[in-house]
Amino acid sequence: MFFTFICSLSLSIGALPKIESYHFTSMGITGELLIWTNDHRQAEVAFAKAQNIFSDIDKKMRPWGDSDITRMNQAAGENWVSVSDETLSVLASGQKFSQQSQGLFDLTFASLNSNNKYTKNNTSLRNP
User: Fold this and answer.
1) Which domain-ending residue is among 15, 33, 61?
2) For residue 81, what are the domain limits?
3) Which of 17, 55, 74, 106 could bridge across to 38 with cysteines, CB 3.0–4.6 Å?
4) 44 CB neighbour count, 10 Å cutoff
């Protein structure tokens, strides 16, 4: 999977803007951030902020290591687990979308994981 995010930073009068392109990986997905600007330093700051957001999401929601998701899965049915507000929001949205789609959207990962062997060492998914 590959995602592209585009944003436009404020332009100053004078130089024509150009596209600054930055690539990153989060949860096994390659992403690209395109920033239309004429201020290279401002683009680098924006990219660093975006990269921090994706890194934070990755740490909280990846299916391996010490994340909210792995702690929830390990304690499933036995203990309560504290999770971040972001993780709780994603889970609540997933449940809402599942209800609205009458189950067509399924936030659970187990069936996808067992079919694709998605792990820390294998982060690519095969096509169905």
Assistant:
1) 61
2) 68-128
3) 17
4) 13
